[in-house]
Structures are given as structure tokens and as C-alpha cells.
Specification:
The chain is an all-alpha fold. The protein has 22 helices and no strands. Belongs to the sodium:solute symporter (SSF) (TC 2.A.21) family.
Amino acid sequence: MRANLAIEDIILIVLYFASVLFIGFRAKKKDNDAVEEYLLAGRSITLPMFVATLVSTWYGGILGVGEFTYKYGISVWLVFGLPYYIFGALFAFLLAEKVRKSKLFTIPDRLAQVYDKKTSFLGTILTLILVTPAPYFLMLGVLFQMIFNLDLKLSIVLSTILSVSYLFAGGFRSDVYTDIFEFFLMFAGFGLIIPFASAKFGGIDFLLSNLPDQALSLTGGNSIQYIIAWFLIAIWTLVDPGFYQRCYAAKDGKTAKYGILIAILFWMIFDFMTMTAGLYARAILPNLDQPIMAYPSLAEVVLPKVAKGLFYIGMLATIMSTLNTLTFISAVTIGNDIIWKLKKTHNNEAKINFYTRIGLLITLITSILFAIYFPSVVDLWYIIGTLTIPGLLIPVITTYFENLTPTPRVAFLTMLSGFLFSLLSFVLGYIFKSSDGTPSYPFGLEPMFPGLLASLLVYIAGKLRE
């Protein structure tokens, strides 16, 4: 699909990219060489900054949200909305202040502090799988290609450089400052398209008259088991490295706690906006060949020039705010949790920034290569990412509750069993596919759930032996 943009739209989009670069490089502080400054903005993130950066980094898969809404209607709220509000609130009340109090840099740091090097290293590998930005590189490249009509490979490379180059200079502070800018743009973009669609086609009555019954059902025509499976996948929130990174960087524990709770309110508003836009796409364009292009296709139909450019900027901002965060988390994990520890330079923290920049290079090169040459693997990466949750969930969360913390050996076995059982279920599902070509997982369960059960049983058995 080629975006039909006027010269005014293109100029606005170019100005957006230029502004992101300006803000990103401008954010660098003179004392940027301090490790806490480069990795966590000096642990000085205030409440408004915390809310803006957390909200904006939560919606990188915006095209996927449009696709799901187009296919299954308002059930998108039950799948991608409500469960994340619940687990986000649990994180705020149970973990946020404890995480901030620990004064660490990463999840593997916590695993090393409470357990041992072996558990920390396995946690590092699982974290890297979880935070890979490759899917977002591909998604941004596709959108860039649509806008500028360039080759996809070139689009991926150019859009990536424009999105994360400033991280080399300003680190986490550059990430946060650009997130704040993109926070306003993503709300502005989706705030524009709904009034234009309503004015051109009609409001709620138009939607009720033109949407199929399935789109207005809370389940979207899917089984209750399917909805529950997606609901439980939201457990991801409790081990999301982006949450931990922002809590580590918050000015204090209360900033982290109340920042998450306020962010949930903004997620509710943005979810309503994205859901409504997706419903308009289904009602106005009922026969789309590519539902993943629901939002761009809607923009082509309802938006005039300038407004269309602003909407595309809103989509770009939504993807880029997540992409730069995951890229930096991946870089810190490589630099701090692998290179620094393997080289045994623990007495020289100044090296961490240098190693993190090496991590940025490694992340950029590997993610670009995956996005260009293995797009089918990238398409599966969200599923692969969920395989790491059963391994990380219990060992990570229990580190913040002394009575629940297992021994290092039990923690390692819990982590390993959770991941391996999920991986085994995933592999079997793709080996023994159903007649229509879809994976046929054992017992009809998503791969995440055998892993959760295995890790829970190992953990309970270990605690009972204690």
C-alpha cells in the first residue's frame, strides 16, 4: 500500500523526524559520563515525565491493534485493555516502590543480587528475547516505505537511524525526552481522525448500523478460552523491563507508584481512541484485503491533507517511542549484564556506558538484519517473547518478597523449566499443524501456559523442600 500524501503532509513528517533528532541530541547533559545519568537519567524522572514515557512506550504494535479491532471489534478492549490495567495496577501497588528502592539498573541485576550468576545469566538471555526491537524496526520500515515510496530494506535502515541514533549521545534521558514529545503527537494523531470520520460518515448510529454483530460482541466471536489466554498473557506486565527501567529511574518510589496509576488512565483514553478508529475502519471499509492496514486505509478515506500528515506522524510516534525504549533496554542488557560482567570489570563502573554503546551497535545491526532477511521470524517474535514470561515471572517477582524468595537453585530450575516447557509446546505446535495450517499446540493450550504450570510446580516443590 502506498500512502497518498500531499507535499504538505510530507513536509510535516520530515519536520517530525528532524524534531525527534533535535530533541534527542539536545537532551544530552554535560555530565552524561556518569553511569546513572546515561542509563537512568540520574534517577531524576519526575511524575509528568514518568507518565508520558510509560504511556508512549506501551503501544508500539499500533498497526496490530488496528488489525485486531478490524477483525474482532470491541473485544480489543477485553484483550489489549482491561487485563493490562489490572496487572499495571498490581505492579503499582505491589512492586513499584520496592523496585525503586533497590536502586539497580536491570532485572538481571536483581537476579544476581538475590540469587546467583547462573540465574542472572539465564534471566539476561530471556530478557534479551523479550525486549528485541526487531518487530518494531520492521513495522516502522513498512510505514516509512508507504510514506516515502522507498525500497523496504533502505526504509528499515533509514527509519532506524532516525529513531535511535541520539541514544548513543544522550542515553536514557534522550529516550525519555523524545517519548514526551511523541506522547502528545500520538494523542493528537488519533484525536484527529475520529472527529473527521464522524463528521463525514456519522457518529454512533452509523457505527451501530454498519458494524457486524461480531464486532459489537465483547468476545468478538472468539471462545472464552481464547479471551482468557490473552488475559493471562497480560501477566507480561509484571516482568516488563520497560516498567522496571522507569521505576529504577523515577525520582522516588511514590513517583513510580502513582505514575503507573495515572498512566493507566491515559491508556484507557488512548485505547478508546484506537478502538473507535478501528471500528470506523471496519464500518467504512468492510472488505479490506490487509486488515493490518486498517488505520492507514481509514486515513486515506476520511482525512484531508495536513490532517493526514499529522495522523501518520501519530502512528510513527507510537511505534518510535516503543522502538527506542526497547533498543536501549536491549543495549543496557548487553552492555551491563553480559559484556561488563563477562569481562569482570566490576570495579570500574565507568566502562558500563562504553559497553552499553557497544550493545546499541549490536542491537541495531542484529535487529536490522532480522527485519530485512528474516521477516517471518520477526512476525513470530511476539509469540516467542511470550515464551520467556513463564521463566521470568516467579523468580523475578519473588525477589521483592523475602518470605517467597526461593533458593538460587530452585530459582534457576523454576526459570529453566518455565521457558523449556513453553518452548517445547511452541515447537510441537508448529510441527503438528492442523489441516488449515495453524499451529496445533498440546491440549489446545497456548505455549505460555504449560510453562507457567511447570514453573509453578517446580517453585512449589522447591519451597516445600525448604
